[in-house]
Amino acid sequence: MLGWFKKKFARKKREEAETPVEAEQVTEAAPDAEGEAAVPVTAGPEAAAAGAVEGGKEALRPAPEAEASEPAAGPEPVPAAGPPPEPEPAAEVAPPEVEEELEADAITEVPEEEELGPQEPSVQEAGSADADAAVAAERAEPEQRTVDVGRDKPRSMFRRLQERLGKTRDSLVHRLDSLFLGKKEIDEQLLDDLEEILITADLGVGTTMELLDAARRSVRRKELSDPQALRKVLQDRILAFLQESDQPAELVMPEEGPFVIMVVGVNGVGKTTSIGKIAAKFVRSGQSVLLVAGDTFRAAAIDQLRIWGDRVGVEVVAGEQGADPSSVVFDGVARAVADNYDVVLIDTAGRLHTSVNLMEELKKIRRVIGKKLAGAPHEVMLVLDATTGQNGISQAKLFHEAVGVTGLTLTKLDGTAKGGIVVNVCRELGIPVRFIGIGEHVDDLRDFSPEEFVDALFARADGERDS
Known about the structure:
Layout: H1 2-18, H2 20-29, H3 38-54, H4 62-69, H5 87-92, H6 96-116, H7 119-152, H8 157-164, H9 166-171, H10 173-180, H11 188-200, H12 205-220, H13 227-244, E1 259-264, H14 271-284, E2 289-293, H15 301-312, E3 315-317, H16 325-338, E4 343-347, H17 356-372, E5 379-385, H18 391-403, E6 407-411, H19 421-429, E7 433-437, E8 445-447, H20 450-457
Parallel strand pairs: 1-4, 1-5, 2-3, 2-4, 5-6, 6-7
Antiparallel strand pairs: 7-8
């Protein structure tokens, strides 16, 4: 009975809060309900409130009584032994009016979502606008790519060589063009001016005299009278000097065992850097390469070679700083033979060609290589700095006497106006030029081609080659 009272009272209280009109109807029917305790508690205040409403007065006074009537439900803790009160299930059952209000609220909330809805399409519209912009960009992309490709298109190898030989060309060819401009005939004054230009371009005295003697003979025979034709004669004669010493650019691999290249030169000519670039060429051709750090004297020489090895992706054999270079080279060649490497590049310490003791040490390294591998080294490559000019000739002669130079690499041709040293070296020594360095990038170490070199040197200002 007590549980029913609690349910009833709670339901009445909720209905009073939600629908006052229905609460009045419930209170009028309350005296008919069963339960003796329920009638006196609820009927008195509610009836008083109803009478007050009918009399046109405000129902303010019954409120304290209603609050006082709430303690009547006080025996809530008493039914602990009886059946547990269950107000929550009754509270969960919402009256029809509340359900209608909830449905109404749900209906009213839908427009709010719809009002918020257009904000999401705004993001979608932004996305669609971006998509439209992307489509427009794709449609316009071919034209933009055409411009970019034209701007970023890699220049031809010949044009790059021509640009890097600009200083030498300005010192030699452009001065020749200025000398021949407007001249009607070839006289002694013109030949004297020509001699000065050729010598200052580092072609050397011997090469210059040979070129001028050939020109004079042609003039005497009346085979040559036009100064512009003299330019072509000089170009052909310089090409002939380069071709006389030229040998096949391909380095011939031995029938068995690794191909050993010993790199020599004075200090600061770029031996280690050239070794790294040559190693990159062999790697691109599919050869396995081993680098040997034979320069144990210069500080950080071993670290520099290791950096190049990491960059190119090859192994490096190195010893301790200050170790005997011959022992390091011996270990490197032994490893190359054991592991079947294709190419071995041996770095050596830079040394002055005038130092007898250092040149003797270089001879010892060469002998050690030959003892470990018969016929090695197969190539003794001398690296020359093109900026040194005619001093490179004396370097090449002394290194050739000591270890027998078989190939040349001329570096830093892009930073000098003395590129004529190439012609003089080939004519004086008869040693083929294997590579020329025209920049700092890996691809700037170029295989030397006499025809390409002369064409780039004598190219017109518009980049066209002379026919």
